[in-house]
Amino acid sequence: MTPRSWLFVPGDRPDRISKAFASGTDAVIVDLEDAVLPQNKPQARAELAALNCTPLSASSQLWVRINPLDTPDAQLDLSAALPKGPTGVVLPKAQSVAAIVELGQRLSKLENAAGRAVGEIKILPIVTETPQAIFALGSYADGNPRLAGLTWGAEDLSAAVGATTARDERGAFTPLYELARSLCLAAAAAASVAPVETIYPAYQDSQGLRTYAQKGRRDGFQGMLAIHPTQVPVINEVFTPTADEIAYSERVVAAFESNPGRGALALDGKMLDAPHLKQAKRLLAWRDRLKLC
Question: What is the pTM of this model?
């Protein structure tokens, strides 16, 4: 299932990797890209290769953020990551679904060589980090069996367009980045995969994090990236369906099942139709996937 919380940890800090797995996050992302200085990337790959993931990943998925596919580091990252049995790869600077195809081909060769099932390793691309990528978000609707979801980011896009900041004086995203966020949501829905909300950088602001995560869940995101272990409990709580939500969804499904052939019906003084039934079933499916974790 798609994790609720995805916690980044620098690949050249093995002490922090162990703490990340102990944080309660659903997924640990060992970062070999932005969190690691160029001169330290060989060290980060060596630390990953030496990591004993078996006891650590019993409760959290292991993911690895590699460097962009058009860099020499990418293949070195994949070669270091695959023996660790990761659930998946986080792909930065994804320009379109063509990047997923290329990465999938590379993974297939490595899986074959390692005797693993081809297609086992999934991909979470960051799909809004370049201006070109914004115009290609519809390409993910073609579908790809390795896609675990889509996530987005504002920082690299901001740097690419020459903006001084991605946020206004109130801390809200300015229009370009709200557009990127919205298009990521739409692209994930078109591809039938989970949208994953981007980071909240002020890691000491727990109330701001909660507000931001609640907005993400309200809008349709099913999980969120994190940059510090203290963010994990809040993210997990926000992205877990409440007992009231589950109970209401069960009542919606039961009402339609009790009235076969009815396209619309009333419940608690409100008219419900097909979109309400679809949303109720989606939340119950989400609950069931969480139970499997």
Answer: 0.90
